[in-house]
């Protein structure tokens, strides 16, 4: 578990703890019903028992508005992989997701020496692809995943 606790303006970003699971899962089901609780719990355990994984809850004015999950790879160069970056539907298209993403990127760049950032998204999710491209992430590879799901890897080189 890579523990993170950040605050800026009216936003608080912190690590998901076991006592948060039911509330975070309920919010996730309301926002994007794509994962069963068992799978969600497995993702939590992956994060909990891996020192390089992070799983974050995002609050605005004490209200849950998002989750972020990823992992840090300390190699040459150091990398962050973002697996989930979900902002609540009521908060989208206001620039808030970009502000949160930029804050996370700056945190990892300055505090952890990360120079490369990657995100994985569904190939057919054009709205999400647009968000990442607006934030200087560019498609670099198309992968065939399990079943018929394809995933695009997008990359952003960030200078400290």
From TrEMBL:
<dbReference type="Pfam" id="PF13420">
    <property type="entry name" value="Acetyltransf_4"/>
</dbReference>
<dbReference type="InterPro" id="IPR016181">
    <property type="entry name" value="Acyl_CoA_acyltransferase"/>
</dbReference>
<feature type="domain" description="N-acetyltransferase">
    <location>
        <begin position="11"/>
        <end position="154"/>
    </location>
</feature>
<dbReference type="GO" id="GO:0016747">
    <property type="term" value="F:acyltransferase activity, transferring groups other than amino-acyl groups"/>
</dbReference>
<dbReference type="InterPro" id="IPR000182">
    <property type="entry name" value="GNAT_dom"/>
</dbReference>
<protein>
    <recommendedName>
        <fullName>N-acetyltransferase domain-containing protein</fullName>
    </recommendedName>
</protein>
